[in-house]
Automatic annotation (TrEMBL):
One of its GO terms (molecular function) is carboxylic ester hydrolase activity. Residues 591-611 have a biased composition (Acidic residues). It comes from Microbacterium faecale. Keywords: Calcium, Disulfide bond, Hydrolase, Metal-binding, Serine esterase, Signal. The keyword Thylakoid does not apply. Residues 612-631 have a biased composition (Pro residues). The keyword Repeat does not apply. Residues 580-650 are annotated as: Disordered. Belongs to the tannase family. InterPro entries: AB_hydrolase_fold, Tannase/feruloyl_esterase. This is Chlorogenate esterase.
């Protein structure tokens, strides 16, 4: 069940995270058994978890007067009541609420002469659920995104509609300061983690001023960089929150950004037009890749439905040089040049330095490679957004602003070894980028667990920038550290989903609702039911939902390492699936030999009646003459077919097979070789 690239990516992680492979395998196997059997691997031995009391509703007591709210280093700019119906979401009105805008820690930088502050807004519903939500935003921040609490794709009820008091911030710099805020040391730290730590106590006090009491429960959620903020908060500020919902978390963002630039350089090697990465991997190429992935991996989960649910098994059986058609003999359609396949295989295996040291992790093979978003991140953002982040925020010393005139040139000419090393070096902020941007001691969730807090992590299998392989590997390490990890943190992967949302996927699910049920009611999410957003979806249509799917197709999102597996019934509804163990590690079925056809006997005329001759012995085979062997088909790529049977005995059998001579034989998740062939 382990999920890692065939490299030493983990060598840069905290030493506390490195448990022996034996323990790692045992923990992952135990977690899988626990999920299938319906319990936790060591629930009986774990101390009883604290239970958070449910939130109680309240009513807004003031709005205009909040302009006089007082908190250290805080300025309130405005407080005004927003009437019900001024905003809508999913066809329903957003209720009446108080909008408060302000800023914290305003200062004049002695580095670049810019005025910096942590800008924020809060939306406080008149009918309050007693809950607080920190809406962590994405990208390089710099904008106060409206604080509606919209976290996931096509959310049918946003946080404000659910009664949350919602906070949103710019993380310490404004839109006109992007990306050059990286010249200022404090702005780097605010972006990394200090804005969350600064804003949270203020927000709770502001809530108390608005409702005459503070929040009963507090949550933080976000996608992409917002998912990173949420993962960081789970270790730095676990005592301030009860629930955490990171979606597509870029929690190793500096590594991913350097890997993006490395990838741009790989693609440029095979670009028909230098600097135009879209000419290296065209839309038609990506459709061909997606078709090859589906041909090989789609039916492994029991149903050929255009979705690869069993990503672990696909990682084992999909081989790009073999399975993707190469253009030979002058062919140009439904194929890729061999050199393009080789680059693709390298990129999917994960970025490495010139010496072969891992920079970032691998990416899974998923049909969502055909998604527009996958190409946007891999082929466009790698030439514009990532060079800005690496050049101005993650490098020890910021680059000259002159590189803004030619960001693609900077990306394609960057010294990857230097950039990969630089994110670990102390920067102008007094901390390295890997210190101020990532969760410290990232698998230490003691405070989260011991206070009764819960975390639900969601990641799309076709994310083009932050790899779900990285997220799964993190969960594996958490499972090593905690035998009862499943009791307080669960990870759900969404087949086909692009970065945060979209793609050929069932990307609409109620993550916030599931988190509330777990935190406040003790109802752990055994599955999340996710829907496609086809024509007529009130949360917004997803144009990439395939035409041959039901517009409202549903699938269960299963807690890793289990996967959605078809059982029986309507293939368009989630109830026809169950969460079962991956087929990872099972032998591929050999094609059955076709029997030789039995020749029809020749029709002969009836012989004339003649006297029977005397019987004489017939010829006998020579003693050394071998009997003929049955004829079989020549070796061909294995055809995949769904396997039936009871998954529990199969999984137990797999576990027993791994226990060999007192040790454990480990097969790492999604191991890839660097380079085709």
């Amino acid at each position: 069940m382990l999920r890692s690239a065939d490299n030493d990516f983990g060598a840069h992680l905290n030493e506390e995270d490195h448990v022996s492979k034996t323990l790692h395998g045992a923990a992952a196997l135990g977690a899988a058994l626990a999920l299938i059997l319906g319990g936790s691997a060591a629930a009986a031995a774990a101390p009883p978890a604290a239970q958070v009391d449910p939130a109680a509703p309240g009513t807004l007591t003031q709005c205009d007067g909040l302009v006089d709210f007082s908190f250290e280093s805080t300025t309130i700019d405005a407080a005004e009541l927003v009437p019900a119906g001024e905003f809508e979401n999913a066809g329903a009105a957003v209720g009446e609420h108080c909008l408060v805008t302000g800023r914290m820690n305003e200062r004049l930088s002695d580095v670049d002469g810019q005025t910096y502050a942590i800008g924020f807004e809060m939306r406080l519903p008149t009918d309050w659920a007693g809950r607080f939500l920190y809406q962590a935003n994405g990208g390089m921040d710099g904008n106060v995104v409206p604080a509606f609490g919209a976290i996931t794709g096509g959310q049918l009820e946003n946080g404000l509609q659910m009664g949350f008091a919602v906070l949103s911030s710019d993380a310490g710099h404004g839109p006109d300061q992007n990306p050059l805020f990286g010249l200022d040391p404090q702005a780097r730290l605010d972006y990394g983690y200090q804005a969350v730590g600064t804003l949270t106590p203020m927000a709770k006090d502001l809530i108390a001023a608005a409702y005459d009491r503070g929040p009963d429960t507090s949550y933080i959620a976000g996608g992409s960089n917002g998912g990173r903020h949420t993962m960081v908060a789970a270790t730095r500020y676990a005592d301030l929150y009860d629930g955490f919902l990171p979606v597509a978390p870029g929690f190793h963002l500096p590594q991913a950004a350097v890997a993006q630039i490395w990838g741009a350089q790989q693609w440029n090697e095979v670009a028909e037009t230098a600097g135009d990465l879209r000419s290296a991997l065209t839309d038609a190429h990506r459709e061909t890749i997606a078709t090859a992935v589906l041909d090989r991996c789609d039916a492994v989960d029991g149903l050929a439905d255009g979705m690869v649910q069993d990503a672990d098994r696909c990682a084992e059986i999909f081989e790009a040089p073999r399975d993707i058609p190469s253009c030979v003999g002058g062919a140009t359609e439904n194929c890729l040049p061999e050199e393009t396949i080789a680059v693709l295989d390298r990129v999917m295996a994960g970025a490495v330095t010139s010496g072969g040291e891992a920079i970032y992790t691998s990416f899974p093979w998923d049909a969502g490679i055909a998604n527009d978003g996958w190409a946007g991140w891999k082929l466009d953002a790698s030439m514009m957004l990532d060079p800005m982040a690496v050049g101005f925020v993650f490098s020890p010393q910021p680059e000259s602003p002159e590189i803004l005139a030619d960001l693609p040139g900077y990306a394609l000419g960057a010294d990857i070894d230097e950039k990969a090393a630089g994110i670990w070096e102390e920067s102008i902020a007094g901390e390295s980028a890997m210190e101020f941007m990532t969760p410290p001691d990232e698998t230490n969730l003691d405070v989260l667990r011991d206070t009764g807090s819960k975390m639900i992590v969601v990641h799309g299998a076709a994310d083009g920038v932050f790899s779900p392989d990285d997220t799964a590997a993190w969960y594996d390490r958490v499972s090593e550290a905690y035998a009862d990890a499943n009791d307080f943190v669960r990870y759900f992967e969404v087949a086909g989903m692009a970065h945060v949302s979209g793609g050929a996927a069932t990307d609409q699910f109620d993550g916030l609702g599931a988190l509330i049920d777990w935190v406040e009611n003790g109802q752990a999410p055994d599955t999340l039911v996710a829907s496609a957003r086809g024509a007529g979806n009130p949360g917004g249509e997803n144009a990439e939902v395939p035409a041959d799917w039901a517009a409202d197709r549903t699938r269960p999102l299963c807690p890793y390492p289990t996967v959605a597996t078809y059982t029986e019934g309507d293939p368009e509804v989630a109830s026809s699936f169950t969460c079962a163990a991956s087929a990872e590690g099972t032998p591929e079925p050999e094609p059955a030999p076709e029997p030789e056809p039995t020749p029809e006997p020749e029709e002969t005329p009836e012989p004339e009646q003649t006297p029977e001759p005397e019987q004489t012995p017939g010829p006998t085979p020579a003693p050394d003459e071998p009997s003929p062997e049955p004829t079989t088909q020549p070796d061909e790529p294995d055809e995949l077919s769904p396997t039936g049977g009871d998954t529990v005995p199969a999984l137990v059998g797999t576990g027993l097979a791994l226990l060999v001579a007192g040790g454990i034989v480990i097969a790492s998740r999604r191991i890839r070789s660097h380079g085709a062939g």
